[in-house]
């Protein structure tokens, strides 16, 4: 993925945030997951997940990754926002909004020209209003988002 960046509003130390079109590194991905209490990720799983992204952005300040967001899906009709996270020390500066705006702009530009795009996400509890500002809504009771989790398989002996 070609790296492009835009500067953002200065923070309290008069430095600016930069949104860069690139995937997070495995260590950045794991550190940001941990910072927002999503749990620990296996290195191999993180690496494969990042590699299979359609598009990603990372927010940096002074070369340090403090936010990220990824798109996964089929690249034509179905797109899912994943791993939209901003380190708690950097929340409240509009970074999450800027990440989602960049991800949605990518989808608008790259969805199949003759069809609609279905864009989904799972919002952490209490974060629903944040995503509603972008047009996301709970479609129940007419439609229910569902998922299942496959636990790790025990090693064969």
UniProtKB/TrEMBL annotation:
CDD domains: NAT_SF. It comes from Paenibacillus rhizovicinus. This is GNAT family N-acetyltransferase. GO terms for molecular function: N-acetyltransferase activity. Residues 19-155 form the N-acetyltransferase domain. GO terms for cellular component: cytoplasm. Keywords: Acyltransferase, Transferase.
């Amino acid at each position: 993925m070609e790296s492009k960046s835009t500067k953002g509003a200065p923070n309290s130390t008069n430095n600016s945030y930069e949104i860069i079109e690139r995937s997070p590194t495995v260590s950045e991905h794991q550190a940001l997951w941990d910072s927002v209490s999503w749990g620990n990720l296996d290195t191999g799983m993180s690496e494969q997940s990042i590699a299979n992204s359609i598009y990603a952005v990372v927010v940096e300040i002074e070369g340090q990754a403090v936010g990220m967001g990824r798109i996964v899906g089929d690249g034509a009709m179905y797109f899912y926002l994943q791993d939209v996270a901003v380190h708690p020390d950097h929340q409240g500066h509009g970074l999450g909004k800027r990440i989602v705006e960049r991800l949605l702009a990518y989808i608008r530009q790259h969805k199949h020209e003759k069809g609609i795009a279905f864009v989904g996400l799972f919002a952490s509890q209490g974060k629903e209003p944040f995503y509603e500002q972008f047009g996301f809504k709970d479609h129940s009771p007419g439609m229910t988002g569902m998922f299942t989790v496959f636990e790790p398989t025990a090693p064969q002996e």
